[in-house]
Amino acid sequence: EDKVVQSPLSLVVHEGDTVTLNCSYEVTNFRSLLWYKQEKKAPTFLFMLTSSGIEKKSGRLSSILDKKELFSILNITATQTGDSAVYLCASPRRPNNAGNNRKLIWGLGTSLAVNP
Amino acid sequence: DVKVTQSSRYLVKRTGEKVFLECVQDMDHENMFWYRQDPGLGLRLIYFSYDVKMKEKGDIPEGYSVSREKKERFSLILESASTNQTSMYLCASSLRLVRPEQYFGPGTRLTVT
């Protein structure tokens, strides 16, 4: 059965720390991996990774995919209290007969708390 | 910017009531999704629609139905609400073929008493 597993489930750090969040996957016909940030409301899209070893970067956030070892990491440097959120990763499921592969398999998320 | 809106942020209903949750997206996306999110269980797909009047069951469709009469609108219906349907309900949309990322509405926190 396809699955996406995130670790750790929760993390507490101090402002200024660097954190690494992990996402491992077992997905048939893997195509891509997505990262989301969820604060008090809806998840917002951060990155999509499709190629191994290519880093995606946005400000203090960066992410990389390892297709050989089947995992991705999300790094946050110089953390701020505004980074406190649940971080989710997901991967598209195997396409149905109509070729539509847009259902996602979701991890349970990592809850990050950044203390001042 | 993609905008997905949901009809209510908070809703309180009684057991046995019929409940309608509405979702509207303004980006001409073919795919629309209804999820529920519960602590420790993550995001679980209830129903998915890939075109007008087309729908597929997700992982937990029991007790729910959906309607998609127009491309921009996707409704979730709880035929007879029960207390175990108390949850956060999230609607999302995405393009059919180009990219897989989904864009979410703000969510509806439903409490069934």
Series of secondary-structure elements of chain B, N-terminal to C-terminal: EEEEEEEEEEE
Q: Count the helices of chain B. How many?
A: 0
Number of strands of chain B: 11
Rg measurement of chain B, Å? 13 Å
Structural class of chain A: mainly beta
In quaternary terms, these chains amount to: heterodimer
How big a fraction of the residues of chain A is strand?
over 45%
Distance between the termini of chain A: 41 Å
Overall pLDDT of chain A, averaged? 92
What structural class do you assign from the helix and strand content of chain B? mainly beta
Residue windows where pLDDT falls under 50 for at least 5 positions of chain A = none
Distance between the termini of chain B: 37 Å
Helix content of chain A: under 10%
Fraction of residues in H or I helices of chain B: under 10%
SSE arrangement:
The complex is a heterodimer of chains A (about 120) and B (about 110).
Chain A: E1 3-7, E2 10-14, E3 19-26, E4 33-38, E5 43-49, E6 56-58, E7 61-66, E8 71-76, E9 85-92, E10 104-106, E11 110-115
Chain B: E1 4-6, E2 10-13, E3 19-25, E4 31-38, E5 42-51, E6 54-57, E7 64-70, E8 73-78, E9 87-94, E10 103-104, E11 108-112
Parallel strand pairs in B: 2-11
Antiparallel strand pairs in B: 1-3, 3-8, 4-5, 4-9, 5-6, 7-8, 9-10, 9-11
Question: Can you tell me about this structure?
Answer:
The complex is a heterodimer of chains A (116) and B (113). By secondary structure, chain A is mainly beta. Chain A is 0% helix and 54% strand. In chain A, strand 6 and strand 7 form a beta hairpin. Chain B contains no helices and eleven strands. Chain B has strands spanning 4-6, 10-13, 19-25, 31-38, 42-51, 54-57, 64-70, 73-78, 87-94, 103-104, 108-112. Chain B is globular. At the A-B interface, strand 5 of A face strand 5 and strand 10 of B.
